[in-house]
């Protein structure tokens, strides 16, 4: 890759004399690997070629222009980069005011300059190809002056200069006409660098310290490259970070002999994919929470009439894109909790014992943990008959004792039961119809409030996704009946819990903690603030609270105004609008009992606040429709 860039650079650097003095522009998008290509790919290759041809290689001097404010600033950076041990600010003060020519060419340098900089230091500056990186990141006001310096280097002093930049960003910085003028004066040839995932991947692996982790990663480097290419992410800095994160997880897991090598490899790939998308802004922690069991969520939507025509919300859309892109990694059922990946991405800290314990307990690795019976039963096609029979007996016993309360294992077991019924093996349900058995099972654990709650817009499933294991029967009508039934009962539990939490909020407010009402609008109380948990609360209860006095009215008015502010057509929260209108009307009526001018002032304050936050909304989505607002004003 980037062979054309190699040819352009070779022609430029191999020429004994340039017919027309010029610089070379190395351009490409941010993160495409321009600097990496020059420093890690091209220059090492050129050194080898020069040695083979018994020619002298002129080394590259990489100078970043990030934040450079003047040509003098750049001159100082050149000297400090070339002579870091000699660049003492005190002794160099005033030196660079003499100009680049006076220290780049010894014959032009005054004795004072030579004395201050040292003959060896100045001579060293004659032994470099200057690579000016981050041209688009210098200060805009310094652009003309710095380009004048570059022109002096190539035109007056015959130096070879490479300008490294994102040309589109550079045009945004200085403007097309200015860049065009400087480009025509100074740049003679150009080469575009495309993201070379493979070279960065190989370099990352090569630079790892010797040890088991490096050996392990080296063996699967091609598989990691496949993941990187599938991601469609071309920012090589993100790839370097993703490799760093993946390596950290390998170092964590490879120390534990009870975790299979295959699981280490799977984890490494998923960490790589996840980090690439996190750093590219394609994922966030909240979206990752929705990925385990995502296919189940989507499957339920496909059979739910009320959801079929409703577009996916942004998080589900991103989660689906991630799942579709990396379906070959089974990211719906990750080998490690995504919370560990996001946590490490934020802090750089990985709690090894927590990670290994989670994996071993979830997947049954090691003597202390056992692989779930339903998982063992699914793998009956590759295990001894005796193990399969034992797994079947264990799962039957667990179902009889109502051991499983999480949605995933129950649905896996249901899928397996349907599969076994298809071959006349009815032992799992003890000859009872599978649908009837699992509905009764679900009712019993739900009635005891043991069934895992389902969030309103997400249907979680632990360990494995909808398309695998026990869900192999998902296309059958029987499985769809069980799926919808468990969804309904799980949502009932979730709704009941939310109602109970809303009741606690109101209890706290009635006891004097009016700030508690803001739990119904705060982002960090997502479930309370985004779901219609108030529609069954008695209207008079809230109205009486708000009409107690001005502070309570103020807090309640803000709750009503803020709560529905961002809700738009189709938002479940809008189911509360009739309730909110009734609360408003009841409060208005109770305010009639207040003395003037307090009544009028309170009514104006409440109405004004709510109307302000309802601007731009459709009448059906408003607490105070336009006609009522007009009446209030009268």
From TrEMBL:
Pfam families: KAP_NTPase. This is KAP NTPase domain-containing protein. InterPro entries: KAP_P-loop (IPR011646), P-loop_NTPase (IPR027417). It comes from the Bacteria. The lineage of its organism: Bacteria, Pseudomonadati, Pseudomonadota, Alphaproteobacteria, Hyphomicrobiales. Residues 9-41, 123-176 form the KAP NTPase domain. It comes from Sinorhizobium saheli.
């Amino acid at each position: 890759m980037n062979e054309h860039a190699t040819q352009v650079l070779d022609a430029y650097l191999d020429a004994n004399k340039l017919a027309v003095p010029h610089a070379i522009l190395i351009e490409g998008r941010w993160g495409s690997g321009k600097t990496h290509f020059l420093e890690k790919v091209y220059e090492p290759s050129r050194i080898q070629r020069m040695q083979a041809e018994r020619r002298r290689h002129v080394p590259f001097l990489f100078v970043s222009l990030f934040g450079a404010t003047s040509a003098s600033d750049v001159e100082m950076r050149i000297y400090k980069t070339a002579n870091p041990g000699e660049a003492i600010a005190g002794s160099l003060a005033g030196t660079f005011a003499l100009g680049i020519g006076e220290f780049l060419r010894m014959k032009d340098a005054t004795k004072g300059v030579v004395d201050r900089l040292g003959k060896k230091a100045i001579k060293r500056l004659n032994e470099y190809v200057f690579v000016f990186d981050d041209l688009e990141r210098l200060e805009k006001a310094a652009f003309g002056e710095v380009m004048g310096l570059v022109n002096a280097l190539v035109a007056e002093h015959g130096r070879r200069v490479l300008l490294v930049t994102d040309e589109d960003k550079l045009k945004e910085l200085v403007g097309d006409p200015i860049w065009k003028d400087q480009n025509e004066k100074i740049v003679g040839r150009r080469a575009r660098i495309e993201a070379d995932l493979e070279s960065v991947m190989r370099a990352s692996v090569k630079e790892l310290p010797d040890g088991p982790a490096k050996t392990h990663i080296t063996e699967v480097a091609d598989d990691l490259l496949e993941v990187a290419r599938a991601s469609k992410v071309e920012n090589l800095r993100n790839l370097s970070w993703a490799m760093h994160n993946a390596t950290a997880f390998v170092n964590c897991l490879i120390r534990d002999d009870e975790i299979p090598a295959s699981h280490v490899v799977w984890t490494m790939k998923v960490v790589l994919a996840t980090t690439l998308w996190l750093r590219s802004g394609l994922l966030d922690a909240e979206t990752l929470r929705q990925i385990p069991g995502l296919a189940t969520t989507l499957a339920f939507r496909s059979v739910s009439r009320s959801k079929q025509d409703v577009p996916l919300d942004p998080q589900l859309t991103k989660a689906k894109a991630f799942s579709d892109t990396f379906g070959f990694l089974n990211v719906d059922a990750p080998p490690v909790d995504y919370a560990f990946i996001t946590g490490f991405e934020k802090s750089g800290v990985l709690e090894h014992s927590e990670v290994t314990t989670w994996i071993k307990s979830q997947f049954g690795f090691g003597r202390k943990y056992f692989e779930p019976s339903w998982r063992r039963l699914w793998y009956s096609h590759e295990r001894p008959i005796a193990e399969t029979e034992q797994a079947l007996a264990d799962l039957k016993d667990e179902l009889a004792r109502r051991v499983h309360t999480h949605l995933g294992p129950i649905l896996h077991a249901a899928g397996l039961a349907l599969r076994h019924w298809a071959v006349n093996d009815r032992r799992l349900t003890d000859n009872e119809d599978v649908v009837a058995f699992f509905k009764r099972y679900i009712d019993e654990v739900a009635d005891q409030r043991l069934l895992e709650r389902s969030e309103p817009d997400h249907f979680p499933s632990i360990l494995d996704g909808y398309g695998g294991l026990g869900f192999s029967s998902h296309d059958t009508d029987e499985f769809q009946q069980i799926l919808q039934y468990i969804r309904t009962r799980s949502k009932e539990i979730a709704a009941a819990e939310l109602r109970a939490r809303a009741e606690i909020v109101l209890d706290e407010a009635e006891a004097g903690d009016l700030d508690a009402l803001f739990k119904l609008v705060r982002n960090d109380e997502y479930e309370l603030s985004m779901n219609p948990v108030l529609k069954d609360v008695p209207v008079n209860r809230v109205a009486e609270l708000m009409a107690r006095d001005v502070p309570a009215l103020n807090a309640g008015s803000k709750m009503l105004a803020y709560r529905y502010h961002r809700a738009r057509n189709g938002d479940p929260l809008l189911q509360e609008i009739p309730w909110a209108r009734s609360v408003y009307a009841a409060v208005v009526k109770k305010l009639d009992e207040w003395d003037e001018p307090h009544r009028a002032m309170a009514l104006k304050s409440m109405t004004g606040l709510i109307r302000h936050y309802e601007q731009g909304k459709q009448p059906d989505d408003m607490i105070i429709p336009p006609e009522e607002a007009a009446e209030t004003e009268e």
